[in-house]
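Weekly modeling sync, notes
Attendees: S.R. (lead), two postdocs, one rotation student

Agenda item 3: backlog of single-chain predictions. S.R. asked that every request posted to the team notebook include the full sequence so nobody has to chase files. The rotation student volunteered to paste the first one in as an example of the format we agreed on. Action items at the bottom.

Example entry:
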Amino acid sequence: PTIFSSFYGYPKNLVLMAKIITGDGIIVKSGGKTAKFSSGYKLHKVISGSLGWLGIYLETTLKLYPSPETIVTIKTNNVELMSKYRPVSIIYERNERNEESSYVLFLGFNKVIRDIEKELGAKAEERLYRLNYEGDNVISIHVTRGKEIEEIKKVYNYVKVERANCILGTGYCRLIVKDFNHIDELRRNVNGYVVVERGEYSGDYWGFKSETMKKLKQALDPSNILSPNLF
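Predicted structure, as returned to the notebook:
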């Protein structure tokens, strides 16, 4: 998920078509320039979020949206995702010093943004909030939408967290951790899934078993070429 995910939908919903190479070296074209509803798996969307386990994008065609007059970020704890201000996204951040902050993203006409700024009594910065994707050991938790902050606070009881971000309303939280000790214990106590996104981990990266994913793997990468022995 991205900072726009609660407004525009998950990134895979923006992929209209793609050229993909599967694990057995077959190049596949999937999708089209207009969205269509049909039965079966849409490979161009299935690949999104699979962490390179099912295939690799060679080319993608993405849906674009008009550029707004202004995009701003306001640091405030006084706005909820379903508030009258209609924010695009709210990012909850907890830094290395365990300080908590909320950053609210708005886009639209200048006058409307200025009025919101006055009502909130907070200064808007004309920029996007930048998610920090650095870190050697990265995990994510995937929980019920709206429960992100409640569940991420549990993580600190089991894992040494260096930095954390949640995109409220998407169910996605991303955490930079010191190590992967107690990941199994964390998985037993969080109401959701814990995925190891980056780093050398000796256990199960996904943290759950899926017959659907297994069948997709057998179909797209029968020789287990992509990410061998990791999943």
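Discussion: group reviewed the output briefly. The mean pLDDT is 89.
Action items: rotation student to repeat for the remaining queue; S.R. to check formatting next week.
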